[in-house]
Amino acid sequence: MASMACSQHVYAQQTGAQQAPATDPDIEQIQVRGIRASMARAMDVKKESAGVVDAISAEDIGKFPDTNLAESLQRITGVSIDRSGGEGQLITVRGFGPQFNTVLVNGRQIASENNSRAFSFDTIASELVSSLDVHKTSTATMQSGGIGSTININTARPFSISGFKVAGSVKAVYDENSEETTPQVSALISNTFDDDRVGLLLAVSHQSRETRLNQAQMDGWLENVGVPNPETASGEAWTGNIFSPRNYDHKVTFEERTRTNANLVFQYAASEDVTITADVLYSDFDIETDATSYGHWFTAPNIQGVADDGSLFDANGDRRSAIVDANGTVVDLYQELGLATDMHAKKFDRLTETTDIGLNIEWDVNENLDLEFDLHHSNAEREANNGGENQLSLIGYANRVRFQVDDNILPLASMFATPNANIYSGQNEIDVGGNLFVADPNNPGFLIYNPSISAPDGVSNHLDPANSRAHVMLRRGWAVEDDVTQFKVDGEWDEGSDMGLMSAKFGFQYTNETKSLTRWDNDTGVHCLYCGYPDAPAIPADMQYVFEAGSDFLADVSGSGRMPTSWLAHDGEAQFAFLESVSGQSFDAVRRNNSIEVEEQTLAAYVEMDFEGELAEKPIFISAGVRVEQTDVDVSGTSAPLTGLTILDATELNQEYGPAEPIAQSSDYDAILPNMSIKWEYTDELIFRAAASRTLTRPTLESMSPAINITTTRQGGDLRSFSGNPMLSPFTSDNFDLSAEWYYGDASYASFGYFKKEVSNFIVNGQSQITFSLPDGSLVQDPSRNVDAVFTNTLPSNGENASVDGFEMAWQHTFDNGFGFIANATFADSNAELDPADVNQVFALTGLSDSLNAVIFYESGPFQTRLAWNWRDEFVQSLTQTAGDGPTIVEDYQQLDISGSYDLNDNLSVFFEGINLTEEYVHKRGRFDNHLLLVEDSGRRWSFGIRGSF
Known about the structure:
Layout: H1 35-48, E1 53-57, H2 69-73, E2 79-84, E3 87-93, E4 101-105, E5 108-109, E6 129-135, E7 149-155, H3 158-161, E8 165-175, E9 180-193, E10 198-217, E11 221-223, E12 231-232, E13 243-245, E14 247-269, E15 274-297, E16 323-324, E17 330-335, E18 340-347, E19 350-364, E20 369-382, E21 390-397, E22 401-404, E23 412-415, E24 437-439, E25 447-449, E26 469-494, E27 500-521, E28 544-548, E29 566-570, H4 572-583, E30 590-615, E31 618-639, E32 642-647, E33 653-657, E34 661-681, E35 686-697, E36 708-714, E37 718-723, E38 731-745, E39 748-770, E40 781-782, E41 787-788, E42 791-814, E43 819-830, E44 851-860, E45 863-872, E46 875-878, E47 888-890, E48 893-903, E49 908-915, E50 921-925, E51 932-937, E52 941-949
Parallel strand pairs: 4-7, 12-16, 37-42
Antiparallel strand pairs: 1-6, 2-3, 4-5, 6-7, 8-9, 8-52, 9-10, 10-14, 10-51, 11-13, 14-15, 15-18, 15-19, 16-17, 17-22, 18-21, 19-20, 20-26, 21-26, 22-23, 24-25, 26-27, 27-30, 28-29, 30-31, 31-34, 32-33, 34-35, 35-38, 36-37, 38-39, 39-42, 40-41, 42-43, 43-44, 44-45, 45-48, 46-47, 47-50, 48-49, ...
């Protein structure tokens, strides 16, 4: 669907700088605005394109169809999005995830603050953007990297606006979950001077939004890690695969999102033949978080079973066994040894800054030859923020917990009194007295939160600050910096529109990208000074408070009525300061000796020919070309070797490292990328297309780091690490497209397309067993078992192939009475889909899913309104989990949004927007339906404001 796009006559679609407009003062420039007009222009963009291209654009200057660029992109056939905090952030096109899509700004690669190559669309305000072009087929002149697509974000240019223009908006955003109202303002001023030979444009946007995310989460499900003697519900011994929970948390995250964008553009028509454009794009996007949660940590070797009466032993005096279901999932367990029940104060700050500076020169050498020179530098950074990028402060207690899973989405973790004597000598155990949970009358065998226990009311409840003790304290994260420098020369020789050769395009491009990843963490062992819940120091009561999540906390999610909605919370920063004063040690994050820098240099040359002819006496247009690239990769940095493990507490081992050692490796590869597109105009209304090409996507930069990073050191042999591979080759894809398009009205069309991609060199994560040698030749030991420490190391490598094909259908129609609709559907399939039962499967295509879109609108006179619905089917988001062994699967999701406006006069309009009207929640799971990973409710949002254009 090419919905709401902008024609070249309103906002230029070319990349880079734009030519100076006509300067004849007698020519009146008319700009048609609104939904219907933008749909008509969208249709023109799609119809006139040589390949398969869809576009979206502003309906007026500073007025994009959706409040977020990714939310707009999901309206296009074949495009789906991943959300963060209720906002679209990353995109998937035709089943290929964020790292498989090249994102350009004004035709240039922009640096990314992500660890991967993915671009985060929430860093750029929609008010600064004039249009988005989605190229689903490739051309030789386009930058490589996008197996899924190449997306070009176009910002406004003064020469494309011409004359004096001021536009802006002020709106208030109300978040129903947080019950907070925050401001958003934007403004654009543009003018041309000296008979339109000089142009200057400044656009700014500032948004502050306070959100609340209600969440239930599990960091992962562990596979075959030593649950002792599991049994089925009927009492039979289980010998198959075992899947046990890593943890289970109830969490509320408060986010303050602040985004400041600016775009400054200067254009100068030095002559009738030369146009110079200099521009700066700036983005400062910060997400500051404050999360509180209540949860339990499980250690597989300590898991057993328990009867409903609390007995831990069967009639033979043996410890009861944990219960598994038909898939081997532990559905009923009890744990008392090595269990952590904690109240968390967490931060997951994302503090980013992106700058792009460019210079472009367009030169019409003569009536046949045009040349364009473009130079730009882009930088993106994300701060580790003294560990605030991933900060954790815990208070808690050692106790006994029962964990149960049934047909509900949310399992139950209940603190459970047993007849055992106090088993935690020297550690604090909460007195659960008469139980926090009672039998659930509607669910035999399960417990439900005891509503008669209120906070704080006697020793029988878990909300008494006197029960809490210090536990783990972590400040950690990755600092990311990405630098991109590009220079390119484009040329076009135009032969005119006679039959035969129409034009020849040629050029070369040099790209240098350097991405550095620096790990920040606590000093070794400092984070665990209080891991064992020592009786001292007592946590000051004034640092703690009872957090009330509310009776409607995740109320729409099945199983929510059985969990507490209040828990003990604390100020994490105050806790850090208190423990630092008591211990005399600093918990600040420090730069670890695991830092990596990947420099990638690519030189490309390309040529493309456009031909015009006839087939069956009907016009046919053919574009064919080839792009040749050479890429050199240099990896450098430092890595500190593991020299020892020591016991910290009943569950965790501390890591000791030796002096940092330098890393230096390099690799190179070449690529030849041909392409051809055919467009046959059977009639003025009916167009057929065919396209074939080869494209590539380079491996993510962090996956090429050879440094070994230790990720898990748990007692009992749960030892894990990962490392990259600088010798990775790029993914390559052979692509084929067929489509038919019927343009039967001024703003009405229908289209049907088929696509197929044969992809080679997919990267898979293999696992191997590794050990670490000491200078004397001995091996690092696992002190919890007195054996050699053997780590399961994850290492990426090339090798898998996959085929993806699918259908895209779109229908856009406008009625004479002001109504209209847009509908599209994408159905995609692959031979590399996940088999949940196969724990040895190392490869499956991520991001692949079907999707549906429907938009209905009404526009008449000064009033317009739009209702938009989007649905995405279940898909595999990742083959890994945060701290587990299986895949991450996102369940199907739908969202309904509404917007409307009323023109007060020719210059002013009032508007409203409603996001997620039906308050849908995101649900992620692991290998099987009952492997909960995340439920996130971001709530509903409303915006009200006024917009002006003069």
